[in-house]
Amino acid sequence: MDLDARLADITTLRVDAIVNAANSALLGGGGVDGAIHAAAGPRLLEECRELRRTTLPDGLPVGDAVATGAYDLPARWVVHTVGPNRHRGQTDPALLASCFTRSLDVAAGLGALTVAFPAISAGVYGWDVDDVARVAVEAVRTSTATGPTSVTFALASPRALAAFEAALAR
């Protein structure tokens, strides 16, 4: 699997699947989640509401993933995952790693070959970006998902890009 990191707006990438750093409600929010919902248009929110009404009435658990259409985005699918929130005591790196591996599993199930990830749980969820980069790169490298051939870490700041470049160089 080819891995790279770049400074990029994940909502503009032409990949099969982009990963959304969602909250468990799946109904939009701030940061990457809000940007993805805004760029995808109202049908994404409608599909997420339907997921909550039917298969996920209690929301999406931390570390798990689910897919929707991408609607007005250039990607084909959005894979939503809920990262652990350090401010709520969710400090287990295995939960963070699960966001990446479960997202790849879901993407593989869709037939996605190219996947883009943000820095899940960095920022408002309180994880240090160096820790996120280390966990993310290790999780993707050791993933058993078959199908995806290319993973891009789409990062919103030069600091995040440097952290992911350093993790990829290890």
TrEMBL record:
Where does the record locate the signal sequence feature?
A: none
- Database matches in PROSITE patterns: MACRO
Source taxon at top rank: Bacteria
Which InterPro entries has this protein been placed in?
A: Macro_dom, Macro_dom-like
The Macro domain is annotated at 1-170
Q: Which SMART domains match?
A: A1pp
Protein name, entry field:
O-acetyl-ADP-ribose deacetylase
